[in-house]
Design brief:
It is a single chain. The chain is mainly beta. Helix content is 0%, strand content 38%. The strands form three sheets. Strands 8-9-1-4-7-10 form a six-stranded antiparallel sheet, with no helix packed on it. It has a two-stranded antiparallel ribbon with strand order 2-3. Strands 5-6 form a two-stranded antiparallel ribbon.
Length: 99
């Protein structure tokens, strides 16, 4: 994957948003009815933030985690014509259970 070339710093997380569903069965969903998708997959993580003592605090997220994202925020990055978003770990709303 091309995004592996980018290693986020500190407590940042590189996420690829999930694709929007534009058709269910034979029914097309109009753009006005589609919400901004708020889930994605963690592609890369930094080593973690620093505490007041200067020690690295490990990340709780790892590559491959399915996460719930805020509707707005993050920094959009394009690598090899694929769009990714860079968030701080604290901005991620939660991890989706794989069940």
């Amino acid at each position: 994957m091309a995004a592996r070339r980018l290693k986020p710093l500190f407590d940042r997380v590189l996420v690829q948003r999930a694709e929007l569903v534009q058709k269910i069965g034979s029914v097309y969903i109009p753009e006005s009815a589609q919400n901004k998708l708020t889930e994605g997959t963690v592609v890369a993580t930094g080593p973690g933030g620093r505490n007041q003592m200067g020690e690295t605090v490990k990340m709780t997220l790892k590559e491959g985690d399915k996460v719930l994202l805020p509707e707005y925020g993050g920094d959009k990055i394009e690598i090899d014509a694929t769009e990714y978003t860079l968030y701080r770990e604290a901005e991620i709303l939660g991890v989706l259970d794989p069940k």
